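Lab notes, practical 5.
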Amino acid sequence: MQYVSTRGSAPALGFEDVTLAGLASDGGLYLPESWPSFSADQIRALSGLSYVETAVRVMAPFVAGSLSEAELRELCAAAYGRFSHDAVTPLVQLDHRHWLLELFHGPTLAFKDVALQLLGQLFERFLSRRDDHLTIVGATSGDTGSAAIDAVAGREKIDIFMLHPEGRVSDVQRRQMTTVLAPNVYNIAIDGSFDDAQALVKAMFNDAAFARRFNLSAVNSINWARLMAQVVYYFYAAVRLGAPERAIAFSVPTGNFGDVFAGYVAAKMGLPVAKLMVATNVNDILHRALADGDYSQGQVVATATPSMDIQVSSNFERLLFDAGGRDGKALAEQMKGFEASKAMRLTNAQREGASALFTSARVDADAMTMAMRWAYDAAGQVIDPHSAIGLAAARAIDLDPAVPVVTLATAHAAKFPTAVERATGIRPSLPSRVGDLFAREEAYAKLPGTFEAVTAYVAERATPRA
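Output from the prediction step:
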């Protein structure tokens, strides 16, 4: 399997090189040269398989040439053996039509664990082959940071520098990062928003000399391997609800577009997906883009769903490339214009390519609260605010009532106890495995959100290439 950049001028790479690189050298994102295709019989054969076996079958085409099936199985078993539920991503029924796909049974209580536990294993396997060292730099709006840090803390050949917007993540989210005191972990709180942090990370990758000197790689969803791992749970859930004999709809609380793009990949592979609902909060750039073709950056508004407080969704570029005809040169010009003006219009081809599968909804704070109350009153489920954004959109979806709708429950409710208590009167407790979080020591740096300050900090602490 070879991978190409969305911006058309970076060399095609195999899976191992793409995993270690993260961002393409031309500033684009990697995608497979072509989508693997699963027949109805192959999808039907996933019925009854464990999560690990499902993962091996779904991901095998993507890792071909870099990992054998036996190696992939070994890495998946190690990654998912740390989850607290044997199903890894269990389904919970809310009513006759609506389901939750619980993605928060990993070590840091968020959906990011599903991909990042595997990514940590992949990094270690590939680096040991090369006897090389990697410097991971990432930006987090809350959950990516803790999941990535947990996945690579203490690994010999990796340093990780994680940026988060100071004061704009929950106390639980911050502590899950800053209480990991492994010698290869560096947390940085920057003065600014998540978009500012993400822009700094991209700038580090685009500084070719800096990126080469420290062998930079990415763990956020610009890394194809992470997105690939998220494709698995769409297959796992859909098969349990009757695929391929019937289509399933998914509602996804969306910030950076990676999680819902994984559903698009599943559909391109042959999974019968009736619709993908892109559920945004009031930071609604994706809703505007899909509904009206208007991809223009606004001011980030702080909300009770901080992981979705984003106005530039990195993975949207992958959809624009694939749905718009895979013209890398044209997309490079389009993205260059967006980066300069912070606004662009989707082309007709991009809008038409997206509308076949995607719909979208903007969910405000009142609708979010009502969804949390409904989940508790109707089904006894205490859900977090991000999952509630997805559920509110799912309940408004315009589809045949016979189509099951699965909402991706992206975080454990205890990560956002104040918002949950305000809506439901229930204050959720942290699971016992992380129950002492608020007694642990914290350590992190506070830096201005400037390229000079952050790169100086990284350069002083990272391991340069030999």
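Observations recorded by the TA: Residues 91-107+224-424 form a domain with the Rossmann fold fold (CATH 3.40.50.1100). The chain has 19 helices and 16 strands.
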